[in-house]
Amino acid sequence: FRRVLFRSNKKYVLLNESLKAISGDKINLLILRGSYGCGKTYTTLKYLKDNKVNHKYINSYATPLSFYQLLYENRNKEVVVFDDIHGANNPLVLAMFKSACWVSENDERAVSYYSTSNKLDSLELPSSFKFKARVVLIFNEILKDYQPIINRGITISFNLNFEDKIKLFEEIKDEADIEDDVLQYIKDNCNEATSNLSIRTLVILSKLKRNKQDFKIFAEEILPKDEDKDLLLTMSAIKWADKTGYHRRTYYKKK
User: Fold this and answer.
1) How much is the pLDDT for 219?
2) Which of the residue ranges 2-11, 149-158, 190-199, 201-210 would you say has the lowest mean pLDDT?
């Protein structure tokens, strides 16, 4: 297996090993949660493609019946990746996830859908089938109802601070075609108070720069800052108190 990107970050080293385990049929479920745009999906799909793992990527809306159909159609894949699918909090979808990720009888994972209507027949779907694929679930935040399935596999949490994101951007910039000028702008003008800071944002700004457009005016719009947080990060206690009218004790408390 080829190694994944971001070798300098322990979380991504763990992700690499987890992808190796799920591709090698050692675990049935891998859950990736946390910061959006930090490379969870990119790294996962790159690993699966580079290592020629037979997989399916799904990030669409799913009703319980359509989700059952997706599971059935991809039951013999090596890995199925579900990325923030809409409808995942439906109790029926959750029940199917439980069945798909843990063996029941005879060391098999059986997924079932029982209905009094003829919908299964019209779609040529059985009422039960064996699911052989392993599952990767990608969420920005784990849905509360998913707690019962977390212990069915491995969960990796990605909550990167600004410094971690900069290291990630530096490591991926050539692979993702991120312009040096764009990355330098981020280093000079962004901080922990910046919202919407992700790989996707840098890729968009880089495309604008290559199109001979002023990417900086776009960056000012799509990378807003929390003004209160920015003041705390960039001002001393005395200057902050003078500007806001609050006592310095409040500065240290908020800091």
Assistant:
1) 95
2) 2-11
Tens of pLDDT, residues 190-205: 999 998 898 889 999 9
For residue 189, what are the contacts with CB-CB under 8 A and spacing of at least 6? 219, 223
Calculate ∠ Cα 205-206-210, nearest 5°: 120
pTM over the 0.85 mark: no
Site of tokens 């500065």: 251
Phi-psi region for residue 84, left (φ > 0), alpha (ψ -120 to 50) or beta?
left
**Helix (H/G/I), strand (E/B), else coil: 208:** helix
Task: Determine the Cα–Cα distance for residues 189 and 237; give it in Å rounded to an integer.
Answer: 21
> What does the angle CA 183 – CA 189 – CA 192 come to, to the nearest 5 degrees?
95
Both tokens assigned to 195: 């919202």
Q: DSSP assignment, residue 146?
A: G
Asked whether 254 and 233 are in contact (CB, 8 A), the reply is no
Q: Which residues contact 156 (CB under 8 A, 6 or more apart)?
A: 11, 14, 15, 18, 30, 31, 32, 33
Under DSSP, the state recorded for 7 is T
Question: Using one digit for the tens of pLDDT, what is the confidence trace for 16-66?
Answer: 899 999 999 898 999 998 877 778 888 899 899 999 999 999 988 888 899
The residue type at 216: K
Is 66 within 8 Å of 46 (Cβ atoms)? no
Cα–Cα distances in Å, from 233 out to 48, 216, 237? 40, 22, 10
